[in-house]
Write a structure and sequence with these properties.
six-stranded antiparallel β-sheet, Alpha-Beta Plaits, about 575 residues, alpha+beta, four-stranded antiparallel β-sheet, 3 domains, 14 strands, Jelly Rolls, elongated, 15 helices
Length: about 575
């Protein structure tokens, strides 16, 4: 186990090193100029006019916040002497339609038809190509606000060459992009592996829910970092996917907790988990039916998330105090707690951001991916420990079962296993044939040559019996010199061929090793010969026929019958 832990530690460190290498590789070259348009804006908000505004300071102005129905118009004279091949402006829009004009000529607009219809408009980064103009030009960004308190801060618009803008955008969100893609691929792969082992290891259900959580968090990160559209087109639904994935975290976390130590049997847990899940699903349903946009319910979701986090901490603390948790469970729940803490931390930063206490979300872009990767690492450790311990227990169980049902000398199934097999036959409707076999001459060999020679005779016969029936029958040693074979399915029609093969093999042994005479008496019966379908009655019929054949064989060989 220590070797596996060391391997996982090395793998995790290798992953971190690769992230650092990729970060350095994709770092934008210093020659790529990007200009942040922070100062010198003239802003019109309703009847209010603000001149020469610094965007970072504007949001801290006294007065009411920007509300639904407001029109925010920002104008700036852009005077940049550098020759830019494909001039581009990139800006963030939050719950609003927008329009870009250059020298009073509209360049592009989006979502203007959403507002009259009350349709939801999310958050997005917009990259708009501008006409190439020599000298200064007037740039205007106009936003029609569709939600209350949309703008708690302004993400500074960026101006530059299109390629430089995109490279800078990807690089600034590289950690989120890499983490999101990794979590989705890892979650899907981990889920497939878990399903493969699920039938053999039913207790692995928490790992299956963890794989769903990985995919869900991966989708959330890609949407939260506004990079989902770089991979697949969301058609403007990135923010909705972000909220849906976020709201699904609570049910998935409850599922993982419930599968640990079977907490789903606790009615308090079930009521709390079911209630929280139904509320989250209800919020999503309200959005889909147009009753309330999903961002409106976010504050309520924060309360539900806090309850989930408290429940997680209480559960972990109680299980640790009662010494219920296995080492693997402790590691996974610790990773889950770190993931939950990273999300709660991001929510706190979001509240501070909305209150204009802090600006931007750079810390969130680091904390959440690290929390997710920590949970991945903890789940891998849990998975390896659980699989290793489960297989060790399974091998131990198989070993004990083998000892209980195997004949100590020949290693064939013993009489107990034979009886169990017979009982299983009685429960089904399958046609079968039972062959009774009695080894001749064992007593004489034991008396004349000793029990060691007799044991050798028995083991030799068992090997020949297994070879001749070639896995077409269930074979068992049910007494000293008594054996039985049970044929099912189409193999029942090969019984005479297999018995002939067995006797021929014994004759070959007699020729090669003539120290004693080897022979066997056989008799068989079909289940169709007994109307009641009782396997023991079928065996008795086969045994009766065997003794009849044995008597004839003894008379032919001149062997006296045993009393």
């Amino acid at each position: 186990m220590k070797k596996r832990m060391h391997f996982l530690m090395i793998a995790f460190l290798t992953f971190i090193i690769l992230v650092v290498i990729c970060y350095g590789t994709f770092m934008p070259h210093s020659s790529r100029k990007i200009y942040k348009l922070n100062d010198g804006w003239d802003i019109e908000l309703g009847s209010d006019i603000y001149e020469n505004v610094n965007l970072r300071e504007f949001i801290k102005r006294p007065g009411s916040p920007i509300e639904k129905g407001d029109v925010l118009k920002m104008t700036k004279v852009v005077d940049i002497s550098d020759d830019i091949t494909f001039p581009t402006i990139q800006f963030m829009s939050k719950y609003c339609s927008w329009r870009v004009t250059c020298n009073n000529v509209m360049v592009q607009e989006k979502y203007a038809d959403y507002i009259p219809n009350g349709k939801f408009i999310g958050i997005s980064y917009n990259t708009v190509s501008l006409p190439k103009i020599n000298g200064p030009f007037t740039l205007t960004l106009e936003f029609s606000i569709n939600e209350n308190a949309s703008y708690s801060y302004f993400d500074i618009p960026k101006y530059g060459d299109f390629l430089s803008i995109m490279i800078h955008y990807i690089f600034s969100n590289l950690l989120g992009l890499g983490t999101g893609v990794f979590l989705i691929i890892f979650g899907l792969s981990f889920g497939v592996i878990t399903l493969i082992f699920y039938r053999r290891l039913p207790g692995i259900l928490s790992q299956l829910f963890s794989s769903l959580l990985f995919v869900d968090v991966g989708v959330w990160i890609l949407c939260y970092f506004r990079v989902a559209d770089l991979i697949v087109s969301t058609r403007g639904h990135s923010t909705e996917l972000e909220f849906f994935a976020l709201y699904m975290l609570v049910p998935l976390i409850y599922m993982i907790i419930g599968c640990t130590q079977q907490h789903y049997k606790d009615w308090i847990f079930m009521v709390t988990a079911a209630t929280s899940t139904m509320i989250c699903l209800f919020f999503m349903l309200m959005h889909l039916t147009g009753i309330a946009h999903i961002n409106r319910t976010f504050s309520y979701f924060q309360g539900i998330s806090m309850i989930c986090f408290i429940f997680l901490c209480v559960t972990i603390g109680r299980d640790i105090a009662q010494k219920k948790l296995e080492p693997s469970d402790k590691i996974q729940l610790l990773g889950l707690a770190i993931l939950a803490i990273s999300f709660l931390f991001s929510m706190v930063l979001h509240v501070l951001e909305m209150a204009a206490v802090i600006y931007g979300n750079t810390v969130i872009k680091i904390v959440i991916p690290l929390g997710c990767l920590t949970f991945v690492f903890a789940t891998l450790i849990n998975y390896f420990i659980y699989i290793s311990e489960s297989y060790a227990r399974r091998k131990e169980y198989e070993s004990l079962t083998h000892l209980a049902y195997a004949d100590g000398l020949t290693d064939l199934p013993n009489r107990s296993r034979f009886e169990k097999y017979m009982n299983d036959l009685d429960k089904g409707n399958e046609t079968y044939c039972i062959v009774s076999l009695d080894l001749n001459g064992l007593k004489e060999i034991n008396d004349n040559d000793g029990h060691a020679a007799g044991d050798k005779y028995l083991k030799e016969f068992a090997d020949i019996l297994q070879h001749c029936f070639a896995e077409k029958a269930f074979i068992a040693r049910i007494g000293g010199d008594e054996f039985a074979a049970i044929l099912t399915k189409n193999n029942i029609y090969d019984v005479d061929t297999m018995i002939t093969r067995l006797k021929d093999a014994l004759e070959v042994k007699n020729v090669l090793y003539p120290e004693f005479r080897r022979s066997v008496a056989t008799g068989y019966a079909y289940s169709t010969e007994i109307p009641e379908g009782d396997s023991h009655a079928v065996y008795l019929l086969a045994d009766k026929r065997m003794y009849k054949n044995k008597k004839k064989m003894h008379e032919k060989l001149g062997i006296k019958a045993r009393l």
